[in-house]
Task: inverse folding
């Protein structure tokens, strides 16, 4: 199964993911025409400020999704082919139970139809073997897309490297990144 | 989300905005969070349409723009364009004043020469021969010398650079090839240089930044201050009232906002002449108050109350008591008309190149200054009539500030102590350590840092350590509102040495109170006065400015103008503290040159620190190092 992973340390808050998401969910799928469309294309990922970091908030497509359980209208469902969580807008009655139980704040409202709006995992693109648009758009690889096993492995490797560095007798001097400098000044 | 909280007078009105459902900059800042990292690092390039290009600060994605420009090239080009924005504003301001001055001399504009001494001082500095010429003839030659700095093509250094640059720095800039000749050419070349496919050498670009710094300092700031003093008078020390509490419920309140005194001086004149018309409508009179640097110009020369700084320019409208806000140029938030719409307040734009949707535009020309000023004052009186019955909330906060510390005014006080060598008492006290050092506080109120009281905390920390503070621009409004410009601040905040000096100076000035520890030297173009004072001190000691135990600080950077002023200060050899960081961190070369290597070239160095205590400590360490090098 493939997933989108988020590396908060890499997010520069450029909001490229937001723009790409909105364009992907527009009729024209083109930035310069999408901005003139009615209804306005809506993004489903929100870059939010958290302490001195920024973080792209989006649906994590949980394996045991509380929104599916909580939805009294049966509007929330899973696409078993790729494991993603979706909303059936015809069933949704806008009670926001999904938003209340979502631990990630991933649900927003479609301002026109007053129904739940959330990341749809770029279902069509993913089934065509492509990456979701937000991942494509991220210039710093804060958002990555891959097999969960591969992602878990890379997380394990970087955790192992962190521990190794911490105890390393060579004590290689830590390189301060530009973003860390900016954050130390209250930035991003 | 938790909202920021501000000083009491501002907060009262922000709370009112909340109740009334009116949007302010605080909301807009929240909705802009988080702000783009590429932009903040300076690594977004929009110079051509192969882009926009951005450099991955992690080095994993793009390391070059489509054209091959590196982060160093992109950052330095962007910085130079910021410099151009700042310098264009100041050179434009100066040109605006010089042209009004010329029209006055031609008998076409209703102004006059107010300070003949300054005219004589400037004219002799420019090498103009007096032999039997009338004031008008001399003044015409002075104006032509100024316009020559915007037109000459012979490569000779600008007249104002020769007039105002300190001797040793002038020589240093000559050796570095920085003696600029024509401000407009420099601005054109900087724009040319930074457009696609020209200068890619970060060092060459940074040298160009220094050139634009000199353009700003001499063809902008110094030129503007000189002509304004000649036309409207050189400021003298006086006391004024400050803060939003200067508005008066029962009067026609006219807020003058922007930077130029040319129109606002006339409005002030006509407000007093039309007082009776205002009274006929039931008002008790007309109350003219100053906002931002137009406020500083008027308070320095006429004692007009300082109502608020730039961040308060929309806040003041929330009182519902402003009948008209007249704006000229620079730092006018487009939001003012949206807020004014919620009340009876009239927003009047006056410059053909500064229009705002929702404002009434009265195109100002010096030729018709009287008619236009009269018309504008009457618009305010009419608006007052509409105000009747509306709720008015004027914060109670109001304090007293000493203003008007022009170099001439400072020397006048010092001459009373030592008439033959007026700078000697200052130097003696610097040597003895009573004055440990001096810091120039310049710039704006940052909506990002205002809630931390960045400026006030830094100032208090420095005063405690006997560092004298001079200030200009909106930073002066902040200091005045914090009661740092009142004589009571001297005993409250200063170390023993500085306290004794200020008491002695107060006595010399014939006051029964000490001078305040923070001296208001004027508007942002009046940073020229700070440079003149430093030049005089360095000259008297026979050293370079970079050797003096002094520093500059823009504790709440907002405008491009602060970047170009700061660069001039760097060229003069000063440590320049800045917060928040200028957009240079994405370039290792720019960061290293500006914060380290430049010290070996001009003596100046940029210093970024957002924590007020740490910033004050950093400045004190710099002063200590300079004192040690001087052997004091």
Result:
């Amino acid at each position: 199964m493939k997933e989108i992973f988020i590396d908060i340390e890499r997010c520069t808050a450029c909001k490229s993911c937001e723009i790409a998401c909105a364009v992907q969910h527009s009729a024209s799928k083109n930035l310069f025409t999408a901005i003139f469309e009615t209804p306005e294309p809506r993004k489903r990922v929100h870059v939010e400020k958290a302490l001195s970091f920024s973080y792209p908030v989006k649906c994590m497509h949980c394996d045991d999704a509380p929104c599916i359980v909580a939805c009294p209208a049966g509007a929330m469902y899973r696409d078993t082919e790729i494991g993603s969580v979706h909303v059936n807008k015809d069933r949704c009655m806008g009670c926001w139970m999904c938003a209340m139980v979502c631990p990630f704040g991933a649900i927003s409202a479609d301002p026109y139809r007053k129904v739940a709006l959330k990341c749809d995992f770029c279902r069509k693109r993913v089934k065509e073997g492509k990456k979701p648009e937000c991942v494509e758009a991220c210039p710093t690889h804060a958002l990555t897309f891959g097999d969960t096993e591969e992602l878990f492995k890379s997380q394990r490797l970087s955790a192992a490297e962190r521990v190794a560095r911490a105890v390393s007798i060579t004590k290689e001097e830590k390189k301060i990144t530009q973003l860390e400098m900016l954050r130390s000044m209250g930035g991003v | 989300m938790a909202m920021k909280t501000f000083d009491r007078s501002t907060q009262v009105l922000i709370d009112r905005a909340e109740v009334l459902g009116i949007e302010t900059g605080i909301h807009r800042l929240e909705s802009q969070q988080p702000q783009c990292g590429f932009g903040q690092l300076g690594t977004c390039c929009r110079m051509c349409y192969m882009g926009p290009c951005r450099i991955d600060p992690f080095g994993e994605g793009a390391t070059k723009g489509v054209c091959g420009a590196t982060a160093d090239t992109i950052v330095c080009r962007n910085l130079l364009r910021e410099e151009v924005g700042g310098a264009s504003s100041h050179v434009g301001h100066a040109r605006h004043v010089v042209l009004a001055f010329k029209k006055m001399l031609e008998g076409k504009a209703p102004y006059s020469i107010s300070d003949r001494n300054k005219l004589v001082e400037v004219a002799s500095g420019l090498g103009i021969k007096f032999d039997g010429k009338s004031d008008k003839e001399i003044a015409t030659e002075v104006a032509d010398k100024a316009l020559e700095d915007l037109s000459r093509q012979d490569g000779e250094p600008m007249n104002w650079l020769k007039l105002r640059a300190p001797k040793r720095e002038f020589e240093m800039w000559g050796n570095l090839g920085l003696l600029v000749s024509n401000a407009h050419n420099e601005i054109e070349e900087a724009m040319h240089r930074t457009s696609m496919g020209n200068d890619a050498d970060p060092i060459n670009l940074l040298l160009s930044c220094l050139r634009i710094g000199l353009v700003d300092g001499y063809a902008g700031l110094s030129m503007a201050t000189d002509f304004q003093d000649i036309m409207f008078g050189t400021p003298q020390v006086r006391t004024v009232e400050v803060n939003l509490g200067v508005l008066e419920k029962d009067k026609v309140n006219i807020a003058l906002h922007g930077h130029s005194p040319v129109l606002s001086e006339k409005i002030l004149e006509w407000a007093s002449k039309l007082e009776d018309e205002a009274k006929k409508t039931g008002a008790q009179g007309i109350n003219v108050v100053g906002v931002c640097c137009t406020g500083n110009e008027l308070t320095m020369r006429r004692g007009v109350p300082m109502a608020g700084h730039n961040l308060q320019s929309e806040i003041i409208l929330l009182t519902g008591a402003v009948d008209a806000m007249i704006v000229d140029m620079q730092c006018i938030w487009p939001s003012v008309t949206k807020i004014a719409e919620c009340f009876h307040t009239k927003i009047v734009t006056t410059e053909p190149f500064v229009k705002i949707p929702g404002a009434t535009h009265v195109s100002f020309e010096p030729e018709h200054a009287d008619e236009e000023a009269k018309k504008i004052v009457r618009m305010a009186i009419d608006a007052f009539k509409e105000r009747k019955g509306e709720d008015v909330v004027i914060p109670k906060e109001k304090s007293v500030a000493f203003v008007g510390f022009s170099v001439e005014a400072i020397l006048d006080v010092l001459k009373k102590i030592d008439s033959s060598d007026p700078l000697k008492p200052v130097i003696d006290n610097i040597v003895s350590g009573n004055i440990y050092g001096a810091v120039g506080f310049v710039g704006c109120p940052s909506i990002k840092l205002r809630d931390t009281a960045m400026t006030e905390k830094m100032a208090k920390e420095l005063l405690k350590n006997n560092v004298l503070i001079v200030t200009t621009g909106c930073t002066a409004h902040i200091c005045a509102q914090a009661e740092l410009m009142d004589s009571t601040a001297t005993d409250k905040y200063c170390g023993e040495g500085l306290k004794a000096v200020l008491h002695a100076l107060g006595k010399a000035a014939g006051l029964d109170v000490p001078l305040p520890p923070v001296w208001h030297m004027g508007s942002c173009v009046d940073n020229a006065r700070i440079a003149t004072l430093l030049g005089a001190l360095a000259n008297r000691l026979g050293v370079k400015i970079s050797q003096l135990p002094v520093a500059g600080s823009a504790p709440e950077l907002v405008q491009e103008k602060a970047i170009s002023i700061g660069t001039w200060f760097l060229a003069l050899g000063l440590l320049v503290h800045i917060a928040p960081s200028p957009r240079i961190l994405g370039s290792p070369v720019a960061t290293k040159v500006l914060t380290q290597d430049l010290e070996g070239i001009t003596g100046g160095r940029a210093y970024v620190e957002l924590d007020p205590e740490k910033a004050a400590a950093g400045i004190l360490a710099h002063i200590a190092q300079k004192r040690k090098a001087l052997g004091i």
